[in-house]
């Protein structure tokens, strides 16, 4: 018995090494795929977008008296200069719609989205003199398409022109003392992974701000450096979120992280990395059943059973980027179970193959691996599996004479 356990341990060790190699190869395929495909997806679909508010600068002419010495004489001249200052927006009413549309490339899914942005910004000349206002809107991302672009003043003409190479659009307008105008901004675009609205670099002052954001997805998530919405309301398959501030001084932003789908590459690599645990439980259970039911399982039987286990992870790793991930899992699991059951049916009959080995493989390979589809459940699945397995083994082997089990053949023959 001891020699058999050593041989089975050797088979287990070799299979574990093979799993680690498979996990490394799958992780490498994922990394290589991501490094090349991410850039392609960004070029085709767009990068993560961060929209900034318009930068407003007011300027006017001032006369400055300048003194100088010429030929020993003091000369006084009046020089006309341009004085300018940054202007804080008096109000912002924004509407954003995010439509999520995942795209798969290789072993990874990318969270791409459409965005429809609309905004009204209130600008006031609070001085007692007429001034020229330069209003600049930065684009939300570089190398991205902006369709149906709107950048105009409500009710009056003005000079505005985009500067694509600089990633912005700029307009100029003359405002009388106390005059207020509304800048209307809008566009349709697309990006990936994250959409943000930034109030500016560093600490910024925001007045009379309102942003209404609609999503078509349920799993909303906000980054740690973002502001949570004041109101959340369900709207069909998604949410209607609202941020409102009367007067805010802050250095944080509004951001929405797109929900991710199960990533085939990392999932296959992770399942393969933990596969030795499931095989260990399976071997212990099969050895125990062999002792209790007096089934003579040879190390070569375990060699083929370990190979059947490995076939599941091998098939899943190379099917995951070709077909739907759940379909790939089902095909790989069915193939592995068929290999095990068909082999042991020939060796020990249908009852042992289906009720013992097949059931054990279903629990320790299929269900254990499927637990990885649920984030945060893997550790709990291992813990519960270990405790339940221990309980069952203790109940089944309570009357087993282990001295007889581990005695050599000569001792048993003499007895």
Brief account:
The protein is an alpha+beta fold. The chain has 9 helices and 15 strands.
CATH topology of the largest domain: Immunoglobulin-like
Mean pLDDT: 88
Shape: elongated
What's the gyration radius in Å? 34 Å
**What is the distance, rounded to the nearest whole angstrom, between the alpha carbons of the first and last residues?**
17 Å
CATH-defined architecture of the largest domain:
Sandwich
Secondary-structure class: alpha+beta
* Percent range for β-strand residues: 25-35%
Strand order of the largest sheet: 7-10-5-4-12-14-13
Q: Which runs of at least 5 residues are low in confidence (pLDDT < 50)?
A: none
Could you give the order of the helices and strands? HEEEEEEEEEEEEEEEHHHHHHHH
Question: What is the level 1 CATH name of the largest domain?
Answer: Mainly Beta
Discrete helix count = 9
Q: Please give the domain count.
A: 2
The level of helicity is 40-55%
Number of strands: 15
């Amino acid at each position: 018995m001891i020699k058999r356990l050593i041989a089975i341990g050797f088979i287990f060790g070799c299979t574990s090494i093979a799993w680690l190699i498979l996990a490394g190869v799958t992780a490498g395929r994922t990394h290589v795929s991501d490094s090349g495909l991410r850039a392609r997806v960004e070029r085709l679909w767009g990068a993560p977008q961060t929209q900034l508010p318009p930068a407003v600068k007011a300027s006017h002419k001032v006369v400055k008296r300048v003194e100088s010495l010429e030929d020993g004489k003091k000369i006084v001249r009046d020089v006309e200069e341009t004085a300018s200052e940054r202007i804080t927006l008096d109000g912002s009413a924004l509407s954003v719609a995010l439509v999520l549309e995942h795209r798969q490339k290789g072993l990874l899914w990318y969270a791409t989205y459409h965005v429809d942005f609309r905004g009204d910004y209130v600008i006031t000349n609070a001085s007692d003199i007429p001034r020229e206002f330069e209003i600049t809107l930065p684009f939300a991302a570089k190398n991205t398409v902006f369709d149906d672009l709107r950048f105009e003043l409500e009710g009056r003409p003005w000079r505005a022109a985009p500067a694509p190479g600089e990633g912005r659009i700029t307009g100029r307008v003359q405002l009388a003392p106390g005059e207020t105008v509304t800048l209307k901004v809008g566009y349709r675009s697309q990006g990936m992974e994250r959409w943000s609205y930034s109030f500016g670099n560093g600490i910024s002052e925001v007045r009379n701000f309102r942003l209404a954001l609609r999503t078509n997805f349920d799993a909303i998530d906000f980054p740690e450096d973002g502001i949570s919405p004041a109101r959340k309301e369900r709207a069909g398959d998604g949410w209607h979120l609202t941020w409102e501030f009367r007067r805010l001084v802050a250095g944080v932003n509004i951001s929405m992280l797109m929900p991710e789908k199960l990533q085939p590459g990392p999932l296959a690599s992770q399942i393969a990395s933990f596969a030795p645990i499931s095989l260990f439980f399976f071997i212990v259970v099969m050895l125990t059943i062999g002792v209790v039911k007096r089934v003579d399982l040879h190390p070569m039987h375990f060699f083929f059973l370990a190979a059947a286990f490995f076939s599941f992870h091998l098939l899943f790793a190379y099917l995951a980027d070709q077909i739907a991930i759940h379909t790939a899992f089902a095909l790989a699991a069915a193939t592995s179970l068929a290999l095990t059951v068909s082999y042991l049916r020939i060796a020990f009959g249908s009852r042992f193959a289906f009720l013992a080995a097949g059931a054990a493989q279903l629990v320790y390979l299929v269900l254990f691996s499927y637990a990885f589809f649920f984030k945060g459940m893997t550790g709990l699945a291992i813990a519960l599996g270990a405790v339940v397995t221990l309980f069952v083994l203790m109940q089944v082997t309570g009357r087993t004479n282990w001295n007889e089990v581990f005695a050599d053949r000569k001792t048993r023959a003499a007895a």
